[in-house]
């Protein structure tokens, strides 16, 4: 590993200043589970590593039924899936956090870091997109927000500009008859990369039998995780049935443009999109009715 300087920022402004001064030669460390490996393997280079784990704003986890959830970018995964409010109202987020690496990784890794690493197969991103999350970003020019569905721009690349960092992720207030689910297909049970991942969110009417609205997102089937707009729009007004979920899965397959690699051929991954979308929608609807 090449030598680098280390700095622990204690405020967002301090982190922005450090990042802006060094530009591309500065890298962020939230949990370190990605960047340390990348530096060691010479996949990335840095003259300065800025630790943001000591910034209180990035470590906050605030929920209220009226305002929703504000999740700091550095909050570790285990705090997410152990939080009762998240388990109840944003279950897909807990599903994803629970399978990002093993439990040792989850004590350090964060959903914010997983998003900023911007892997096409990242587990958290389809869940975030399905839940309609918004990214709060700080930089030299102030603060701005970006829908997570638009955050990733290419493998390993995203909307962050020079000197910017992800501060928090915001989720809307929960609806009374809503549920979500994330699942992936992998060769092993843990610490593996998704062959396909799917996040689904469903909102039902008062009877629990008709879909008022929904959002579907898929990962590992394109250069970035994708929001399945046509499949999501199709759900509105449809009965909450297996046939509806199957049809939505077929529509979601249309956006999948995967590659063939050691984890699976492209044709198989397209097939899995349909299967996982249907299953994720069914589980999300089940949670909405529980």
Portion in strands: 25-35%
| CATH topology name of the largest domain | Uridine Diphospho-n-acetylenolpyruvylglucosamine Reductase, domain 3
Distance between the termini: 50 Å
Specify the biggest β-sheet. 5 strands, antiparallel
Helix content: 25-40%
Give a verbal description of the structure:
The chain is α+β, with helices and mostly antiparallel strands and 290 residues long. The chain has three domains: 5-51, 2-Layer Sandwich (Uridine Diphospho-n-acetylenolpyruvylglucosamine Reductase, domain 2); 56-171, Uridine Diphospho-n-acetylenolpyruvylglucosamine Reductase, domain 3 (2-Layer Sandwich); 178-288, CO dehydrogenase flavoprotein, C-terminal domain (Enolase-like, domain 1, 2-Layer Sandwich). It has helices at residues 12-22, 35-40, 77-81, 84-89, 91-97, 103-106, 111-117, 124-130, 229-235, 242-253, 266-288; strands at residues 5-8, 26-29, 48-51, 61-64, 68-72, 134-139, 142-147, 152-154, 157-158, 165-171, 178-185, 196-204, 211-219, 226-227. A five-stranded antiparallel β-sheet has the order 4-5-10-6-7. The chain has a four-stranded antiparallel β-sheet with strand order 11-12-13-14. The chain has a three-stranded parallel β-sheet with strand order 1-3-2, with helices on one face. A hairpin with a 2-residue loop joins strand 8 (152-154) and strand 9. The longest helix has 23 residues, at 266-288. The radius of gyration is 19 Å and the shape is globular. It starts with a strand and ends with a helix. The model has no long low-confidence stretch (mean pLDDT 94).
């Amino acid at each position: 590993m090449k030598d680098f300087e280390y700095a622990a920022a204690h405020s967002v402004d301090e982190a922005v200043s450090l990042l802006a001064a060094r530009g591309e030669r500065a890298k962020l460390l939230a949990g370190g589970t990605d960047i340390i490996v990348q530096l060691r393997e010479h996949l990335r280079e840095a003259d300065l590593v800025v630790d943001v784990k000591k910034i209180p704003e990035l470590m906050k986890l605030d929920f209220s039924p009226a305002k929703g959830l504000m999740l700091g970018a550095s909050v570790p995964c285990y705090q997410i899936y152990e939080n009762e409010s998240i388990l109840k109202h944003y279950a897909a987020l807990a599903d994803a956090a629970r399978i990002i690496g093993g439990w040792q990784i989850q004590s350090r890794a964060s959903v914010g870091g997983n998003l900023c690493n911007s892997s096409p197969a990242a587990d958290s991103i389809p869940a975030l997109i399905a839940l309609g999350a918004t990214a709060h970003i700080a930089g030299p020019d102030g603060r701005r927000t970006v829908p997570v569905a638009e955050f990733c721009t290419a493998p390993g690349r995203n909307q962050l500009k020079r000197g910017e960092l992800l501060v928090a992720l915001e989720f809307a207030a929960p609806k009374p008859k809503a549920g979500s689910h994330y699942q992936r297909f992998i060769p092993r049970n843990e610490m593996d990369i998704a062959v396909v991942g799917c996040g689904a969110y469903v909102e039902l009417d008062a009877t629990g039998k008709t879909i008022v609205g929904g959002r579907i997102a898929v990962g590992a089937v394109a250069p970035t995780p994708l929001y399945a707009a046509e499949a999501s729009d199709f759900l509105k007004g449809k009965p909450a049935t297996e046939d509806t979920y199957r049809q939505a899965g077929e529509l979601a397959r249309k956006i999948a443009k995967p590659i063939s690699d050691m984890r699976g051929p492209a044709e198989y991954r397209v097939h899995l999109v349909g299967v996982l979308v249907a299953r994720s929608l069914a589980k999300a609807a089940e949670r909405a009715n529980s």
